[in-house]
Amino acid sequence: MNPREMRATSGLAAIYGVRMAGLFMVLPVFMLHLDTLPGATPLLMGLALGIYGLTQALLQIPFGLLSDRVGRKPLILAGLALFVLGSLVAALAETVYGVIAGRALQGAGAVAAVILALTADLVGEERRVRALAAIGLTIGLAFTASMALGPVVDRFAGLSGVFGLSALLGLMAIVILVFWVPQPERVRHHPDMVPVWSDLPRVLRQPDLLRLSGGIFFLHLILAANFLVIPPLLVEHAGLPGAQHWQLYVPVLLAGFVLMLPAIIVGERRRRVHAVMRAAIALLALVQLLLALLVLNGGGLWMLAVLLVLFFIAFNLLEAGLPSLVARIAPVGHKGTAMGGFATAQFLGIFAGGLLGGWLLGWFGPGGVLLMGVPLLLLWLRLARGLQPRYLSNRVLGVPSTWSGREDELQRRLRAWPGVAEVALSPDARSLYLKVEPSGPDADELAAWLAAPPASAATRDEPGRPR
Asked: What angle do the packed helices 112-122 and 42-70 form, to 10 degrees?
C-alpha cells in the first residue's frame, strides 16, 4: 500500500474497532444490573441488550445505498453522531426504558457498509483484500478488548460509566474520521462491497446463500441469549465477582481464537471448510447442552471456563468461515448484496436472541435459555448438510485505461481463460470482478495481462495459452 492507502486503512479500521467496542462493552456486565436497574425485567433486559441489532439490520443497507448519493464521510459522521447520542441517552437513563432507547439509537448509526465502501474508494483493487483483512482483525481485537474493559469500567463507574465510555469512543472515531481518514477523489459504486436493490431477487434465489444467512442468524441469536445467562452464572455458580470477569474472558477468548486456527487452516487447504463448519455446529450444540446441565447440576469455575473455551472455538470457526463461504458462493459482481443480506440476518439474530432469551429467562430460568439453542443448532446442522460450495477465489482488478472502449472484448477473452469461472465489469467499467478456480490464474498474472497494450490483441496469445 502507498502512504495514503495505509492512512485510510488504519483510520477506517480504528473507526470500525472503537465503534464495535462501544457496542459490545455492555455485553459482559449488563445482566449483573437486573436487580438494580429500575423497571428491569428479564424480557426488558433482553430487549435492551439486543435492540441495537434491530435498528442496525433495518438501516445498514439503506445507509450503504444512500452513501453513493450523499458521500461516504458525511454519512459516517451522521452515523457516529447517532451512536454518541445513543450512548449518552443510555448513560443518563434512570430506568431500563431509557437504556432501550439509547441502545436503539446506538444501532441506528449503521455505518458498517459505508465504511467498507469508503475503504473501496480509497484503496486500490489489487490491495483491497489487505485492507479488509486489517479491518477484520481489528473487529476481533475490539471484541476481546470490550470483554475486558466492560467489567473494569463497570466496577469503578457502573453501567452509566460503560455507556459514557462508549460515547467517548464514538467521539474518538469522529476525530479520526475528520482529521485522519483521507477524502476520496470520487465516490464510486462498488457492487462487490455495497448492496444493490435490483440484485436482491437473484441473491434470494440462491439456496446456499439462504442457508448461510440462516446460519449466522442462529449463531448470533445464541450468542446474545447466552450473555443473558453467562455473567450471572460466573457470579452464582463459579463465585467470580463481576469486577474480575475480565480475568476469565480474556484468556478464554484468546484460547478460543488460537485453538480454532488449525481447523480453519486444514479446512482451507483441503477445501473442506463446509465440513469444518458442520463439525463446529455440532460442537456448539454439545456445549449448549453441557452448559444447561451445569446450570441444573452445579459446576465450578474451571468446568465453566472449559465449556466457554469450546464455545468460542466453535463460534470463531463459524464467525470466520461463514462470510468466507458467502464470498465464494455469491454471484460475481453481486457479492455486496449477498454480504448485505448476510449482515442483516446477523443483526436480526442479535435482536431475536436478546428478545427470545429474555422471555425464556423470565419463564424458565437460565437452563431454559441455554437449552433453547440445542434444537436451533440441530436444525441448522440439518440445513447445512446440503451445502457443497465450489472453492473459487475472488479477484478484483483495476481496468487500465488502454482497454477503454473494448470492454466486451476484455470480458470475452477473460472468460476464455482456463480456470476463470465468472467475469463481471463494474458499472463505471473501472473494475473487474472475477471468480477463479484454484488452478486458475493468480492476481499478478491477471494484472500483467491487463497491463499489456490491447492494440496488440490480434497478435498476442489468448489468455491461458502458452506464450
From this structure: 30
Half-sphere exposure of 220 (CA within 13 A, CB side): 26
Give phi and psi for 441, each to the nearest 5: -70, 150
How far apart CA 255 and CA 334 sit, in angstroms, is: 36
Tell me the pTM.
0.91
Q: Please state, in angstroms and rounded to a whole number, the distance separating the CA atoms of residues 394 and 131.
A: 15
**What is the rounded distance in angstroms from the CA atom of residue 250 to the CA atom of residue 269?**
29
Q: What CA–CA distances, in Å, run from 30 to 20, 36, 149, 296, 363?
A: 16, 11, 13, 23, 19
d(CA 434, CA 447): 12
Instruction: Enumerate the β-bridge partners of residue 94.
Output: none
**DSSP secondary structure string, 301-315?**
HHHHHHHHHHHHHHH
| Inter-helix orientation angle 301-329/246-269, to 10° | 40
pLDDT of 414 above 70: yes
Q: What Rg, from alpha-carbon coordinates, does the chain have?
A: 23
> In terms of residues, how long is the chain?
467
**Which of helix, strand or coil describes residue 55?**
helix
At 157, which amino acid appears?
A
Q: Say how far apart CA 165 and CA 178 lie, in whole Å.
A: 20
Which residues, other chains included, contact 375 with Cβ-Cβ below 8 Å and sequence gap of 6+? Answer: none
CA distance 173 to 15: 5
pLDDT at residue 310 greater than cutoff 50: yes
Tell me the DSSP string of 69-83.
HH-HHHHHHHHHHHH
Listed range (15-29, 223-237, 256-270, 447-461) with the worst mean pLDDT: 447-461
Phi and psi of 90, rounded to 5°? -65, -40
> Which class for 351: exposed (0-12), middle (13-18), buried (19 or more C-beta within 10 A)?
buried
Count Cα atoms within 13 angstroms, Cβ side, for 359: 6
Tens digits of residue pLDDT in 270-296: 878 888 999 999 999 999 999 999 888
Nearest-angstrom CA–CA distance, 50 and 32: 16
Helix 207-226 vs helix 273-297: angle between axes, to the nearest 10 degrees? 30
Integer Cα distance of 438 and 440 in angstroms = 6
| Distance, CA of 165 to CA of 150 (rounded, Å) | 9
Residue whose C-alpha is closest to residue 118's, from 131, 101, 109, 108: 131
> Which phi and psi angles does 109 have, rounded to 5°?
-80, 65
Question: Degrees (nearest 5) of the Cα angle 366, 369, 370?
Answer: 90
What the block records as the C-alpha cell of 89 is 441517552
Amino acid letter for position 189:
H
Query: Shortest CA distance to 200 belongs to which of 321, 339, 390?
Result: 339
